Amino acid sequence: MGSGIAPEHPFCAQRVMKIEDIDRVLSAIRRSSGLDEFVVIGSLSALGVSGDKLPPRMTQSMEVHAYPERDPNRAQEFSKEFGEDSAFHQEHGYYFDAVSPDLPTLPDGWQTRMVRQVLASGVKVKYLDSNDCAISKYARSEPKDRQWIRAGIEAGILSLPTIEYRMRETLFLDDEEQQKAKTSLVEDKLWFESLRARPY
């Protein structure tokens, strides 16, 4: 059975990230701005939830999607110094990607499920719950998003029943986005069933 997902070589070319990488860029922003509380969403939010248990495909990225928790509108201020093509990016191979809490498609209650962590530098971070993150990825359903999801399902980090339940509580951008997410979820349920049915 075909996976319906494009080859993953562009995604695998990305850097494998660690918590220390998130700490490096956010602590640099703290020194520059005085802000010390951030929210991390997107693929790398899983690092704050599952840490070293993550398969590499879930942490391959060059982007730390984040915003200051108490003043999200200031996120764009940091793009020149820490964003794409900045000196920080050139030195470290990854960058801060300014986002908004209104950007991703997420289920009701996502704010209450975030995981809190104080990094080694003292920066305080909240990470998006991994199953909530999966819903935002289903809404896009790009190849790298589907690869992230399947890696998480296979590793037992993501729960398809949880994702399916929360998807019912999600306000999608439009009918097309909702249908795309539902179709991708059905494909992954069939894929996972076939995976479990394979003889060892």
Helix content: 40-55%
The total of helices stands at 9
Structural class by secondary-structure content: alpha/beta
What oligomerization state is this entry in? single chain
Provide structural commentary.
The chain has 200 residues and is α/β, with parallel strands linked by helices. It has two domains: 9-129, no CATH class; 131-197, no CATH class. Helices cover 44% and strands 11% of the residues. Strands 3-2-1-5-4 form a five-stranded mixed sheet. Strand 4 (115-118) and strand 5 form a beta hairpin. Helix 6 packs across helix 9 (175-197). The longest helix has 23 residues, at 175-197. The chain starts with 8 loop residues before the first helix and ends with a helix. Residues 1-12 have low confidence and may be disordered.
Protein traits:
200 residues, disordered N terminus, five-stranded mixed beta sheet, alpha/beta, 9 helices, globular
Please give a quick description of this structure:
With 200 residues, the protein is of the alpha/beta class. It has nine helices and five strands; from the N terminus they run ααβαβααβββαααα.
Topology of this protein?
Blueprint: H1 9-12, H2 19-33, E1 37-40, H3 45-50, E2 63-68, H4 79-82, H5 87-92, E3 95-98, E4 115-118, E5 124-127, H6 130-140, H7 143-154, H8 160-167, H9 175-197
Parallel strand pairs: 1-5, 2-3
Antiparallel strand pairs: 1-2, 4-5
